[in-house]
């Protein structure tokens, strides 16, 4: 992960350290079966709330969704 940051931030890699730390702390760790942030604070990051919001938006969008069937020769704009 750090190697990827160094490619993008080769001249100013110190700027990427907080982002690298955040990513590492929120990655799933197979040894403890959870993210380090979750283990340390007992909280899941915003991921769960984003999933709920995404599902809610999808349900609203699906209310007015209609399947469109096209056959060969139909004009599609």
Automatic annotation (TrEMBL):
<dbReference type="GO" id="GO:0003676">
    <property type="term" value="F:nucleic acid binding"/>
</dbReference>
<protein>
    <submittedName>
        <fullName>DNA/RNA polymerases superfamily protein</fullName>
    </submittedName>
</protein>
<dbReference type="InterPro" id="IPR036397">
    <property type="entry name" value="RNaseH_sf"/>
</dbReference>
